[in-house]
Amino acid sequence: MRTTSPFLSKSKYLSGLQCHKLLWFQYNAKDQIPAFDAQTQAIFDQGNLVGELARKLYPNGIEIAGVANDFGKILGLSKEVLSHRRPLFEAAFKSGNAFARADILNPVGRNEWEIVEVKSSTQVKEVNLHDLALQRYAYEGAGLAISRCCILHIDNEYVRKGEIDPKKLFKKVDVTEQVASLIKSVGPNLRTMAGVIAQKRYPEVEIGPHCSDPYGCPLTELCWKFLPEDNPLTLYYFKKEKAFDLIHQGQLDIWKLPASIELSDKQQIQVEALRTDKTYVDKNGIREFLGQLEYPLYYLDFETFGTAIPLYDDVSPYQQIPFQYSLHIVDAEGKKPKHESFLADGAKDPRPEILRTLKNSLGQKGSIVAYNASFEKDKLKKAVEVYEQYIDGYSKIENRFVDLLVPFKAFSYYNPNQHGSTSMKAVLPALTGKSYEGLEIKEGGTASLEYLRVTFGKVTEKERQKVRKQLEEYCAMDTEGMVDIVEELQRLLAPIGAILI
Ligand code: SF4
After folding, report:
1. Of 99, 328, 438, 484, whose Cβ has the fewest other Cβ atoms within 10 Å?
2. Ligand 1 atom 5: the closest Cα is on which residue?
3. How much is the mean pLDDT over the chain?
4. Whose CA is closest to 233, among 206, 259, 253, 260?
5. Is pTM beyond 0.85 here?
6. Mutational test site, ligand 1, from 14, 33, 219, 222, max ligand atoms within 8 Å of CB
């Protein structure tokens, strides 16, 4: 058991507000917390880039260098530079067990300071206010006069034109009043958290919506492992709060739910399919969907990335930019598909090349099949708004799109192995037996991170080529999978009715 009260930095304080069990593990069983996954690490890396850019708004600032855990050194340095009355980056001060290092501490007037927290989000979130409350508490407790608290976040209305202009990219919001209303809770919270950390055993905390709010908890795998595969959280479009209520009441398996629980038609199909271990097939619904398809069929899938700091002109923060597509073309029912693909190379905007090649490849007639087609349509629409020479071409293909997600969202087909999901990743293996398992890249988030890494990062040519091949394989799987899904749906068709098979 700890005998001294440990420092609570802003991130630990926020963890403590989210869940006492998580906080306990962070101090007492750190080795049991899994390392950040690549996606989370990428978010942090992006945050660092955003932070560096924000500092340009405060020229002549002083960075408080120092090893993160050498509290004495960074506290001493921070105190030393206060008298310079210049913006300070990561200045460290403590009060009791509260420890703060604001992104920017900006001098105001003769002896006051403004705390500026830089966020890569596009709006102020409640969690940011708690973050600032802890910092203000620590700074004021250390004797600094804080006149203002601000959040500097990304302005999603910014559109890049030439060099990034930090003055336009960021939006500064004064949250002094909201932070003031939270200050009085900081002291009691810190005392409670110190008590939690000092406990011999972690506190029992039930799982709940807080496991992913405000941040995804790294202990989810540990705390959620008692849940069976088909638990109330997998019920299709079932309210999360209601699902957690059922779990807390001990209703863990959806196929055992009492009849008194009100379920929608689709949720009933899901539960019934599980109880009977049979697939639900509404042949009329499938027939209606397949009836819309006009050969030749063009199965199209985009991979995209979105960055907080736009990489190209005419792009907004986090706007999804397509960098790759796969296209399988089937000329007539039963014919072998032909494959075409595009994967951007080099640092230039990939959109014109995508528009140009697709214009040639998509032909004049035939359905363009995509899974969640509004995504592909939206990316094309946004691209032609900038590259106007392709507007005509786009208006000709816009109405040719058919969404393969529709029959699954309508539950015209539902297989218990989908576990309540209608995503392609759930439908493909359930319906066709094929899966992404053998691939190095298995989902879109990894695809965009890997693309950015090998296109803009420092990697060997061998590594770059290896990853590009993996990207090609992954994207091709998406469209090949769609071909397989449509063929399976065609096979399932029989004269009439809805059946469990
Ligand atoms: S998974 Fe949920 S209950 Fe478990 S530590 Fe994290 S937030 Fe707490």
Report:
1. 438
2. 22
3. 94
4. 253
5. yes
6. 219
